[in-house]
């Protein structure tokens, strides 16, 4: 299933959402200009699970020891958790992610406000990547893409607008019907697929090039943090 648009109209101009889309697009254009150097660029700014886990999830590590490792050389590995959100592996990867962000991000920004939405996006992206790192601690396969953070936006949308209608393209062999589906069903099914694929691919690093656990973790982070951010905005 592929979403085409939703029925919710933004009350404000979602310029932070546009900024995020533009940033991802600009970084990808820069990647495309690097030629053979793109692999080194990706390795430098992508989140490498084995590197990040050595800082965040060491055996027997305490909060104090984690903080110590960040100060003594681990900051770069931790920074890649954020820089990786703006990297993409190809045009289809970029367009697919930006389509979801364009459709669902504006309404979440409406509810959180511009600054709150930016912090929310980065925080759920952090949660998404750390979830994938936790399940793939020994992997050296780079994690890239905005999909984990976008999954957090989907989790928030799921709570805020369950009755909203999503105009959806459904591929059925040679037929491609377009139907309206409730956000509750569309996003609930989406999350279920991420969770099941993550469970089935346990032990396989980013199986098929998809970080399933980042998607599932981001969605849960978005659903959990949304009420907290709404409460903070009311205070």
Summarize the structure in words.
With 235 residues, the protein is mainly alpha-helical. It has one domain: Rhomboid-like fold (Up-down Bundle), CATH 1.20.1540. Helices cover 66% and strands 6% of the residues. The chain has nine helices and three strands. It has a three-stranded antiparallel β-sheet. Strand 2 and strand 3 form a beta hairpin. Helix 3 packs across helix 6, helix 6 packs antiparallel against helix 9 and helix 7 crosses helix 9. It is globular.
Properties at a glance:
mainly alpha, three-stranded antiparallel β-sheet, 6% strand
Q: What is the end-to-end distance? A: 39 Å
Multimerization status: single chain
CATH superfamily: Rhomboid-like
Strand content: 5-15%
What's the layout of helices and strands?
Layout: E1 2-6, H1 15-33, H2 38-45, H3 49-56, H4 63-83, H5 91-112, H6 114-135, H7 147-160, E2 165-169, E3 178-182, H8 183-200, H9 212-234
Antiparallel strand pairs: 1-2, 2-3
Helix pairs in contact: 1-5, 3-4, 3-6, 5-6, 5-7, 6-7, 6-9, 7-8, 7-9, 8-9
Task: Quickly describe the structure.
The chain is mainly alpha-helical and 235 residues long.
């Amino acid at each position: 299933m592929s979403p085409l648009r939703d029925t919710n109209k933004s009350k404000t101009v979602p310029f932070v959402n546009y900024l995020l889309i533009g940033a991802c697009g600009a970084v990808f254009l820069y990647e495309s200009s690097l030629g053979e150097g793109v692999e080194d660029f990706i390795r430098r700014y992508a989140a490498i699970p084995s590197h990040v886990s050595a800082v965040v999830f060491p055996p027997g590590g305490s909060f104090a020891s984690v903080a110590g490792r960040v100060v003594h050389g681990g900051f770069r590995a931790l920074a890649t958790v954020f820089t990786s959100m703006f990297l993409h592996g190809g045009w289809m990867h970029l367009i697919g992610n930006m389509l979801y962000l364009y459709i669902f991000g504006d309404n979440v920004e409406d509810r959180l406000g511009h600054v709150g939405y930016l912090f929310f996006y980065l925080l759920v992206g952090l949660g998404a990547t750390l979830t994938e790192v936790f399940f793939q601690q020994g992997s050296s396969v780079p994690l890239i893409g905005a999909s984990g953070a976008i999954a957090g936006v989907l989790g928030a949308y799921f709570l805020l607008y369950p009755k909203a209608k999503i105009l959806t393209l459904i591929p059925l062999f040679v037929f491609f019907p377009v139907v309206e589906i409730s956000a509750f069903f569309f996003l609930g099914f989406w999350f279920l697929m991420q969770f099941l694929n993550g469970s089935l691919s346990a032990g396989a690093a980013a199986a098929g090039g998809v970080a399933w656990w980042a998607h599932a973790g981001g969605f849960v982070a978005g659903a959990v943090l949304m009420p907290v951010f709404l409460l903070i905005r009311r205070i």
